[in-house]
């Protein structure tokens, strides 16, 4: 077996590998290196995507089809999108790539037991807007066999040719040669509770609080908005829990026997119960602080708590963008005479 | 006609009526603090923070002396740019106050120049001026201590005559009385020498934190600034020390629940050597640390621990149990200091950039510089000195009672300080002429009438504010000392609307969530109603009710900010506290089950 060419394990990846493993993949590798617990996994690097597209190009143009599109022609774009997506979904993967993926996949599980994995697109573009809509769409949970995994990887790649993606790239004038996608394959966490955490307040931008949202089961129910999560605001430094909004969580996402994810009703006794204990909130706070310190800026984090190990796992962390763009200027400047600060109070300034 | 369409507003002072049957008691207060028609132009609020109960005629001396000194400091000494002093009025025993804002920009500019020459000098020389302040206060206290108790001998002592003193004992009464009164007015000047500047520096840091960290709690900021070895904690520290001594000498069993002070003292003395040794330790603690009173020092009946040992003694069994159980007892000064340092550093790290960090450093340094005064002055002023003052007045009450003016010495507090001087001169005259004094026929009915009025006033609610609502409240004195903002006024207005919500909101003073039985304690006399594990609900929480804090699970008050001493002590004890709710004592029923969320400032009525 040749050395891995298309696969990168999390342990071997850092932030600098972003161009080849995408934002999500780089971030997971970086978290792993920082000693944060993430579910084991690997990244199908962009080289795999590029070789795959090159193989398609040899039969019929791909990139040129996109670059020839007029931004105003929705119909034309729709047709190209449908055509390219169909081609990507149908084309076989090169044998060496298939072998590498199947081998890496098998290594994630126990001998003879194929692991359940999540498959997620990992865009290489710096652009947050592009990354965020691509990232939301293309997460496939509970993939439990190798053929299906390979299909999902192709689906991730195909998503780059969705109507939204295409029209976005055309509007921004992004060269097709610069477009690539990596795919993260990560052991599924059988989540008792999952959610998100912002290491600042989404409401006020306050950096001294951590906002945690969570719901029963897999995080997909919360991310897709199908359930109103419990919400807490925890002092980043004090640990004080200043807000506890416990919601009625009617449903949760769980593994479907048919593969993938299904919606399940939450038992009546649990619907209005907090999905996290105070101890877990404090552990999340500590993890949030650690990650924020590691990156040196506020983060937007996805996490899950394993049903069996009751252990917190980090699924993703990315820089918070909304407030970071706002707080450039210092709110208060140093003054020559420290006493002048008091004039704010005594001078009646508001 | 349609009351619902009218914007909500506070009544005008002229529309507030003196409660029927109390008119004469109301008229007893000096003319210059009675409401007049022109007062309708101005915004007033009920100072329930300092004067939560109807004021007796004598006790109004505190309002008079305090506002005299506060105004002098603001208007003339430090020249605050945007505000002068604070006016006060009384109706139905309730003290209303209103600030005098400076609004003319030229005048503000002129005063700003003066302010910086004066206040900045204080900030720059804070430590030496504060050291000097303590000396002044100790001297003032010493002067008050050496004032003789008023006595009138039948004949002038022979040694006075032989020494050619030339002044008779009746004149000494006047001298002692006037010195007593003068000392009290002087104390209030000392009290305000630093206070506004101290609060101002603190609030500057506070405002910065609120801007940089919009969701930071008041209590977190308070913890960053709080003094570690502030004198306000000393009386309580002494109780712990005494509890430890009691265990060491094995006399703690003498402090039985329900036993009177006399019983306990008797059984300690009877226990021989161990009891004697403990009583020696008690004497050490009492001077000066038991000169703390059970209120804020604004009422003659807020007696000190020294006057009434039942309060400190009630705390001994609880502390002694902790000693026996081997629980840590002493305030962990080093640990607290370290925690404070870490808190400051951690928040500093979160700031956006180095420029903000530099400003933060400047402001916290100033806040730390001023804070020992902010926390420490109360012990000297409102407690130690005020106890001496009221007790001296009480001794005049005793003398007048002995000459038939009053049924008891306590009646003296039903006279204004002007009337008291007249009564003393009446007695001086009578002693000199040999005729009977006029007071015994004159005062008793008035005293009875005024006592009845105070009782009656206490049964009636009073509006939280009067007069036109200002658009903005940016008078730094009012914001700093009373925490009143436009927002709190709106809360008062909506509180009056009788909302059916089962929540009471206030300032988050000390975090934690507990449920328990509410015990409404409207005055110091009712403290004994508190059972172990109750939640204290009172008009104004008071740190000198300290022994209570080991008994209760949480505290809720109508009045107070996150820097009120109640909040400070609650944080020390780790008890949830919600302060400044405006109406907790009227909305919560005695015995009701409530949940106090001190971190969010919310009290929920459960049943």
Using brief descriptors, characterize the structure shown.
heterodimer, A: 350 residues, alpha+beta, Dna Ligase, domain 1, D-amino Acid Aminotransferase, Chain A, domain 1, six-stranded antiparallel sheet, five-stranded antiparallel sheet, 23% strand, B: 607 residues, Glucose Oxidase, domain 1, 20 helices, 12 strands
Explain the overall architecture:
Chain A has 350 residues and is an alpha+beta fold. Chain A has two domains: 7-187, ATP-grasp fold, A domain (Dna Ligase, domain 1); 191-319, D-amino Acid Aminotransferase, Chain A, domain 1 (2-Layer Sandwich), CATH 3.30.470.20. Helix content of chain A is 37%, strand content 23%. Chain A contains twelve helices and 13 strands. Chain A has helices at 18-33, 46-59, 63-67, 74-90, 95-108, 128-137, 146-159, 163-172, 220-223, 268-271, 278-295, 343-346, and strands at residues 7-9, 41-44, 117-123, 139-143, 181-187, 191-198, 209-216, 230-235, 241-245, 251-255, 261-265, 299-306, 312-319. In chain A, the strands form three sheets. Chain A has a six-stranded antiparallel β-sheet with strand order 9-8-7-6-12-13. Chain A has a five-stranded antiparallel β-sheet with strand order 1-2-5-3-4. A two-stranded antiparallel ribbon of chain A has the order 10-11. In chain A, β8 and β9 (241-245) form a beta hairpin. In chain A, α4 packs antiparallel against α7. The longest helix of chain A has 18 residues, at 278-295. Chain A is globular and about 75 Å long. Chain B is α+β, with helices and mostly antiparallel strands. Chain B has three domains: 1-115 and 435-484, no CATH class; 125-402, no CATH class; 501-605, Glucose Oxidase, domain 1. Chain B has 20 helices and twelve strands. Chain B has an eight-stranded mixed β-sheet. In chain B, strands 2-3-1-4 form a four-stranded antiparallel β-sheet. In chain B, a hairpin with a 2-residue loop joins β2 and β3. In chain B, α6 packs across α7. The longest helix of chain B is centred in the middle third of the chain and has 49 residues, at 354-402. Chain B starts with 22 loop residues before the first helix and ends with a strand. Mean pLDDT of chain B is 89; it is low at 1-6. Chains A and B meet through β9 and α12 of A and α3, α6, α12 and α13 of B.
């Amino acid at each position: 077996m040749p050395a891995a060419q298309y696969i990168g394990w999390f342990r071997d990846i850092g932030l600098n590998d972003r161009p080849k493993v995408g934002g999500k993949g780089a971030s997971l590798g970086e978290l792993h290196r920082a000693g944060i617990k993430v579910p084991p996994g690997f990244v199908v690097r962009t080289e795999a995507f590029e070789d795959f597209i090159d193989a398609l190009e040899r039969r019929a143009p791909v990139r040129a089809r996109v670059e020839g599109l007029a931004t105003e022609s929705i119909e034309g774009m729709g047709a190209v999108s449908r055509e390219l997506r169909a081609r990507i979904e149908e084309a076989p993967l090169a044998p060496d790539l298939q072998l590498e993926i199947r081998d890496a996949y098998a290594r994630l599980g126990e001998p003879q037991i194929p692991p359940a994995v999540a498959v997620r697109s990992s865009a290489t573009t710096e652009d947050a807007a592009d990354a965020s809509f691509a990232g939301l769409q293309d997460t496939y949970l509970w993939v439990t066999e190798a053929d299906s995994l390979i299909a999902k990887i192709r689906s991730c790649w195909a998503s780059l040719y969705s109507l939204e993606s295409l029209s976005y790239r055309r509007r921004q004038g992004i060269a097709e040669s610069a477009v690539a996608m990596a795919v993260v394959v990560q052991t599924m966490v059988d989540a008792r509770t999952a959610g998100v955490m912002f290491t600042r307040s989404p409401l006020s931008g306050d950096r001294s609080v951590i906002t945690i949202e969570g719901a029963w089961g897999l995080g997909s129910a919360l991310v897709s908005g199908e359930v109103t999560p419990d919400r807490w605001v925890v002092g980043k430094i004090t640990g004080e829990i200043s807000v506890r909004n416990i919601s009625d969580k009617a449903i949760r996402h769980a593994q479907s026997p048919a593969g993938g994810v299904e919606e399940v009703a939450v038992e009546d006794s649990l619907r209005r119960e907090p999905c996290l204990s105070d101890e877990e909130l404090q552990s999340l706070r500590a993890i949030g602080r650690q990650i924020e310190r590691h990156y040196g800026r506020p983060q937007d984090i996805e996490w899950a708590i394993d049903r069996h190990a009751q252990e917190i796992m980090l699924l993703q962390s990315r820089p918070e963008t909304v407030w970071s763009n706002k707080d450039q200027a210092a709110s208060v400047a140093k003054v020559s005479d420290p006493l002048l600060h008091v004039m704010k109070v005594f001078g009646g300034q508001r | 006609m349609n009351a619902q369409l009218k914007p909500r507003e506070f009544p005008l002072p002229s529309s507030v009526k003196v409660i029927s049957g109390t008119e004469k008691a109301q008229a007893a207060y000096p003319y210059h603090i009675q409401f007049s028609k022109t007062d309708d132009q101005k915004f007033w609020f009920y100072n329930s923070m300092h004067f939560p109960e109807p004021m007796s005629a004598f006790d109004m001396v505190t309002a008079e002396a305090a506002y005299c000194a506060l105004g002098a400091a603001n208007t003339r000494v430090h020249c605050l740019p945007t505000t002068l002093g604070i006016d006060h009025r009384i109706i139905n025993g309730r003290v209303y106050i209103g600030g005098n804002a400076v609004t003319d920009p030229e005048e503000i500019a002129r005063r700003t120049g003066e302010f910086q020459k004066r206040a900045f000098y204080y900030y720059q020389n804070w430590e030496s001026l504060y050291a000097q302040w303590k000396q002044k206060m100790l001297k003032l206290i010493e002067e008050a201590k050496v004032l003789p108790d008023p006595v009138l001998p039948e004949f002038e002592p022979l040694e006075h005559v032989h020494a050619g003193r030339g002044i008779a004992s009746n004149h000494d009464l006047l001298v002692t009385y006037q010195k007593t009164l003068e000392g009290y007015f002087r104390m209030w000047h000392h009290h305000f020498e630093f206070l506004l500047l101290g609060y101002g520096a603190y609030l500057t840091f506070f405002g910065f934190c609120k801007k940089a960290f919009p969701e930071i709690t008041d209590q977190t900021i308070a913890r960053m600034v709080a003094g570690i070895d502030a004198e306000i904690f000393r009386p309580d520290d002494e109780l712990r020390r005494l509890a430890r001594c009691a265990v060491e000498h094995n006399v703690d069993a003498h402090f039985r629940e329900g036993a009177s002070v006399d019983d306990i003292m008797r059984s300690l003395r009877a226990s021989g050597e161990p009891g004697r040794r403990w009583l020696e330790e008690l004497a050490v603690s009492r001077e000066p640390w038991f000169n703390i009173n059970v209120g804020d020092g604004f009422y003659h009946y807020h007696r000190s621990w020294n006057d009434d040992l039942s309060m400190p003694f009630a705390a001994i069994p609880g502390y002694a149990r902790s000693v026996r159980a081997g629980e840590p007892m002493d305030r962990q000064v080093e640990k607290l200091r370290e925690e404070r340092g870490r808190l400051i550093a951690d928040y500093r790290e979160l700031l956006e950039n180095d420029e903000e960090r530099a400003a933060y450093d400047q402001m916290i340094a100033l806040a730390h510089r001023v804070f020992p005064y902010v926390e420490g002055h109360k012990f000297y002023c409102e407690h130690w000195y005020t106890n001496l003052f009221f007790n001296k007045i009480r001794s005049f009450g005793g003398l007048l009672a002995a000459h038939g003016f009053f049924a008891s010495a306590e009646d003296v507090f039903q006279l204004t300080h002007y009337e008291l001087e007249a009564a003393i001169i009446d007695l001086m005259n009578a002693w000199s002429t040999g005729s009977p004094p006029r007071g015994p026929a004159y005062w008793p009915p008035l005293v009875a009438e005024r006592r009845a009025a105070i009782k009656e006033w206490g049964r009636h609610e009073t509006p939280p504010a009067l007069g036109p609502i200002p658009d903005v409240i940016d008078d730094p004195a009012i914001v700093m000392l009373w925490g009143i903002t436009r927002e709190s006024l709106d809360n008062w207005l909506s509180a009056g609307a009788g909302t059916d919500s089962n929540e009471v909101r206030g300032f988050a003073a000390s975090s934690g969530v507990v449920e328990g039985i509410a015990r409404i304690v409207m005055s110091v006399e009712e403290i004994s109603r508190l059972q172990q594990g109750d939640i204290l609900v009172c008009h104004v929480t008071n740190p000198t009710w300290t022994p209570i804090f080991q008994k209760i699970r949480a505290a809720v008050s109508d009045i107070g900010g996150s820097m009120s001493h109640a909040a400070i002590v609650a944080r020390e004890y780790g008890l949830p506290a919600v302060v400044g709710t405006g109406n907790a004592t009227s909305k919560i029923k005695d015995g009701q089950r409530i949940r106090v969320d001190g971190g969010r400032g919310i009290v929920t009525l459960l049943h």
